[in-house]
Amino acid sequence: MSFRNWAVLLAAVTLVASIAAWQRAAVKVDYHILAAEPENINTKYEPVRFGDEVPAATVTAVLAAGEVHPKLFEIKADDCLAEFQFNGILLPLNYPLCSYPESVQLNLGGLIRPGRNVVRAVVKNKGGHGGFVISPSRMDSMVKTRALLVLLALAVFIWAALNKAEAYRSDKVVWTFCVLGIVLRVGYYLFTPYWTRGYDYFGHLEYIDFVRSNWTLPPSAEGWMYYQPPLYYFVSAALVTLADLVFPGRFNSADAVQFFGAVCSIVFLLLLIKLLTELFFGRTQRRIAAGLGAVWPGLVLFASRINNDVLLAPLLLVSLLFLLKRWRRESKSAEVRLAIFIGLSILTKSNALVVLAAALVAILAKRPIASLKSAASILLIVVLLTGPYYLCRSLKSDALMLGGNLDLDDGLHVETTPRSLLAFSPNSLFEQPFTDPREDGFRKDVFLEYWLRTSLFGEFQFNGSPEIFARASMVCAVLIIMIAMLGLAMSRRKRDDDDLLMLLVFVAAAAAHLLYRLSVPFSSGQDFRYTWMLLVPVWYFYARVVEYEWKAVRASVVVVSTMFVVSASCFICFAWWALLPMWR
């Protein structure tokens, strides 16, 4: 057996052993809440919650630990921890401990034992839903060690497997970026609970549970996320059911759905690199685009989430791949596949209508009269796929596709003045790279800045992470956008057939984003996750600059790209919360 074959085998065995060790060392927690209004209690998912009218609740939990177990635990109480006992011992903390939304790190090494451990916590609620969660800290040495072992084994396995592939030998740099992107996503998934930097996970899990129990559409007015199209929830419900059959009692539904999201994130990365390399014939351009796509932080954040964006993203990329194929050469099979994947995307989330609009305009733009039949056939297939669902919804309720997005609180409201829509200050971006959907001090009203901030860091603060990497990533991102604008302007001198397609995709996504901001003026509605497709044409025109004869500009593109890959990768690694103790 050759060295490469031995490397693949050894890495595969190490990876399986690492994952098995991870499972054996896992800690399982079962919760029970005593409160005045038991009908508003939810202990099925972490963090456990109780109703907004309950001022206090007593949470008891049975924590089952293995022979090898973590010692450092993370506790989060919404809003204050009034008392905390572990195995009958009251911990001497500074009660009431009101650190929410930040968590508290407790070393339970002298108290925790293999097997059954009892937790008792009294939680005070100042308003809104109250909640509590206890979980192994991402800073625990055992948690870090086993996660890094999994990551190392995964990286070696992918590297060894790719070394056997002919495609890897054709451009090792692109595939190295692919490995880097996978490792960053898997690491973020392993270190990040689904309730950290997530969106409405309770609503999505509630939808999935309803489907698992009934295998039918839920009434849209009876749940926060029930208005959403059904594909993600039916696929997730099927996968959770399958996981229960194959691994009975090993996973709860939330863990299984989060794992599905991580897989979707990796598939998304592979499809993204496929699309970006299809757009370019030059090796340098492919490497630049692949590097940006692999490490762009806002896309990595998808890896740990529970929401329908995680399935929508790869479906939209497949749609763009077939749109590119149809753009370059008229093909009936490409048209049919394009229409099918657009339909599946719309059945996952309604903002996929943007791709339908871009596809129809692109097809008609090349040959307006001759392509009418093609555009009509695509539209017909999409209507046939999605029509029954929307017809059923319209007959059952009057809920719009926007659903709960129309009923948000005033703290999320933003202005729609020309100044707020057109303002753009690089200095403010460099000074404050993060944003907050509720705080005016983070310039939440400034449309363009909000999109760029959320494209890198979401709507989160990443408290404790060294900001040097965030600021460096932001500086590079602003330069990338400026150079992309130069590339768009210069593309008129050296035309490429794909330029018009990328411009149409950009205009369609940007117009939809602006229209949504004007129609639903809330900060959360202008988040990057709704229009991540804007990045594809930005990267395209940015990398196209390499084709031109200005050596200084070409060198700048390579330098900026390298700086971004390094700074963004470092930022994501620190966002895992694995290396933070080194900085404290």
Question: How would you explain this protein's 3D organization?
Answer:
- The chain is an alpha+beta fold.
- The chain folds into three domains: 31-136, Galactose-binding domain-like (Jelly Rolls, Sandwich); 146-403, no CATH class; 409-583, no CATH class.
- Helices cover 55% and strands 10% of the residues.
- It contains 20 helices and nine strands.
- The strands form two sheets. Strands 1-3-8-5-6 form a five-stranded antiparallel beta sheet, with no helix packed on it. Strands 2-9-4-7 form a four-stranded antiparallel beta sheet, with no helix packed on it.
- The longest helix has 27 residues, at 253-279.
- The protein is globular and about 75 Å long.
- Residues 578-584 have low confidence and may be disordered.
Number of DSSP strand runs: 9
Q: What best-fitting shape do the alpha-carbon axes yield? A: globular
What is the CA-atom radius of gyration, in angstroms? 25 Å
- Main beta-sheet annotation: 5 strands, antiparallel
Order of helices and strands: HEEEEEEEEEHHHHHHHHHHHHHHHHHHH
Given as residue ranges, the uncertain stretches (5+ residues, pLDDT < 50) are 578-584
Kindly, what is the distance between the CA atoms of the first and last residues, rounded to a whole number of angstroms?
48 Å
Count of the separate structural domains: 3
In helices, the fraction of residues equals 55-70%
Query: Which structural class do the helices and strands define?
Result: alpha+beta
Please report the number of helical segments.
20
**How much is the average pLDDT?**
84
Major sheet: arrangement of strands: 1-3-8-5-6
Oligomer: single chain
Strand content: 5-15%
